[in-house]
Amino acid sequence: MQNMTLEIENLVTGFKTSDGAFNAVDGVDFKIEEGKVLGIVGESGCGKSITSLSIMGLVPKPNGFISSGKILFEGQDLLKLSEEEMQKIRGNRIAMIFQEPMTALNPVFKIGFQIAEILETHKNMKRSECKPISIELLKKVGLPRPEKVVEEYPHQLSGGMRQRVMIAMALSCNPKLLIADEPTTALDVTVQAQVLELMKDLKAEFQTSILFITHDLGVIAEMADNVLVMYAGKVMEETDCETLFDEPLHPYTNALLNSRPERIKPGEKPVCIPGMVPSPFDMPRGCAFAPRCARAMDICKEKKPALKAISSNHKVRCWQYYSEEEQCQNI
Amino acid sequence: MYKYIIRRLLLMIPVLVGVSIIIFSLIHLAPGDPYSAMIDPNTPTEEIENMLQNIGYYDPLPVKYTKWASRALTGDLGYSIRYQEPVVDIITRRIGNTLLLSVLSLTLSVVIAVPLGVISATKQYSKFDYIATIFAFIGMSLPAFFFALLMIKFLAFDLKLFPISGMQTIGSGYTGIRLLWDVVHHMMLPVIVLSFLQMASFMRYSRSSVLEVIKQDYIRTARAKGLSEKLVVYRHALRNALIPVITLLSSSLGFILSGAILTETVFSWPGMGTLIYQSILNRDYPLVIASTMLLSICVLLANLLADILYAVADPRIKYN
Fold it and tell me: Where's the ABC transporter domain (chain A) (predicted)?
């Protein structure tokens, strides 16, 4: 049995809005082993980012709130910690890289200062001691001329360079868990590949677990050990990376795989999933994917299926994988 | 940067020339003249006409302007018709009184209002926020003269906490510390009125600015770094939120020398505000022009200062 870095049980994160309340993350369970990468895929608005913000304790207040569940990080429930205790973990043992490198750095502070801040907060270093370490970190993430970059402001760097700075910041305290929320989405393809390579190296070096959130299946194939497919705040399918690509079970996973641009032959129209992600205020009574599902049955529209274990490392939430008897019992 | 400042200063010259022409024309377009009130109504009309002819009252406007401008260039801003004294002397005597009032009230309002605005923003929709908003609303909508009169009625007349008007107790002959206290005592009410009214806009401005900044991605990054909420707000958010507040500050700074006309008048404060008000009533041409020119120079300098402050506060702004 491997050491678990992160175990999430039945996480429910909701939002209050003027139109009513809804659950953006609706009962999610998963585990990440030490030194492993868990990928979460899904369309925009399916609860991927809110899951990661829940772990960080950064769900936007006052409208967002975690209503139930457990987030066990190295055995400790993060939801039971006070704000001060969470501050000691954030940026230190759990670090996060965000999607938008262009806006994620504070425009009025020098790069060196923004890295030094973390070292000051978590390692009790003096400002003067931080500079050589910041330069070292920037060198490690492959930034050219790091001794100059520490004296520069974010607007003087390109998107790829800024994302490297973000990664350097995230790694400054050797975190046990790194949450990467679409870290390559805003970057062009060559820079994307470099950044992914960099994260892989760092994982190997520090045994860091990574929670990798993306809607790019190519990136998942490249990075992830295990994959979670999310839709409308729920886990639809959970398995290891190879199985996901070789024998996807859930119709949504299949639809996602079929709509990859590299599968389209010249002259063919791209395959897309008809319809839209349902509005959180207007969730279907049955399976959330049923209105868009090509294989939907009557039961799919009536009742929500539960996540079912097909094998030891493969779970799926779909009525097709229930026998007729099981389906009948549920009605 | 220095080159930029020098270029901006040089650019001020044509602007000031334009401003002086406009002021000069406008004040002469106003009906009435400064002399009628000074002359015995029984004087024969021809004599008055003769006199006005002699002092150049009937000169065409361009001639008058050229005469004024050539003297102004040598530092001679003319003689006040009303006070029979050089304009420069009157202004230098008054300007200190106005600066005392305006610098103090501006500093007070910024020092109090910006933190209040920040707290209001970080605790949006809390009781504190609502109370602050109500007060800001009052401060924004109350006219200065009316608020000043209310304060005089309640604090000065009913409660007798402060003197009603003026800058010193007349005929007291105080010196040293007692004089200082006397002036401070007289100053309090106008300072309260002025800072309360200015606080309102500074508070609302910094509140909305912080609310805007706090939604930004880099604030989430700062939190994700594990910084305390205090550092997130007062280091990461405030520094960015202050940039738009500079605009408001510079527009207030522009009027620091001209004084608050209404407030000074209500309190009979012997500053630039009352001076400008009275000189316009008296058609005291040299005094009006000199004080309005001073005001324009001040506004232009404040704008330049704002642009320099932008570059200091925001590294993305660079001038070449």
Answer: 6-257
Encode burial over A293-330: b for 16+ CB neighbours within 10 A, e otherwise. Answer: beebeebbeeebbebeeeeeebbbbbbbbbeeeebeee
Over the stretch A243-271, which tens digit does the pLDDT of each residue have?
Answer: 999 999 999 999 999 888 877 788 888 88
CB contact under 8 A, B223 and A118: no
Q: Which of A89, A104, A117 sits opposite B217 (nearest CB)?
A: A104
Alpha-carbon span A163 to A192, nearest angstrom = 10
Mutation target vs B (from A52, A73, A106, A109; most B CBs, 10 A cutoff): A106
Chain B partners within 8 Å of A151 (Cβ)? none
Q: What's the rounded mean pLDDT across residues B61-84?
A: 88
Distance CA B102, CA B253 (A): 9
Coil vs helix vs strand at B130:
helix
Query: How far from chain centre, in Å, is Cα B245?
Result: 17
Contact A117 B217 (CB under 8 A): no
Measured between CA atoms, how close is B280 to chain A, in angstroms? 47
All residues of chain B having their beta carbon less than 8 Å from the beta carbon of residue A166 are 221
Give per-residue pLDDT as tens, A273-325: 888 888 888 888 889 999 999 888 888 888 889 899 999 899 999 998 988 88
Q: Cα separation of B163 and B267, whole Å?
A: 10
Q: Specify the fold of B87-313.
A: MetI-like fold (1.10.3720)
Cis bond before residue B14 (omega within 30° of 0): no
> Helix, strand or coil for residue B161?
coil
Domain covering A4-93+174-267 in this structure, CATH number: 3.40.50.300
Please tell me the pTM assigned to this model: 0.83
Sketch the domain layout of chain A as residue ranges.
Answer: 4-93+174-267, 103-172
Amino acid at position A323, single letter: S
Beta-bridged to residue A71, according to DSSP, are A8
Which residues in chain B belong to E strands, given as ranges? none
pLDDT reported for residue A331: 61
Of A90, A107, A155, the CB nearest to B225: A90
CA proximity to A304, closest of A254, A215, A232, A240? A232
- Cα-flanking dihedrals φ and ψ of residue B70, to 5°? -65, -35
**A interface toward B at CB cutoff 8 Å?**
56, 58, 83-84, 87-92, 95-96, 98, 100, 103-109, 117-118, 121-122, 153, 155, 166, 169
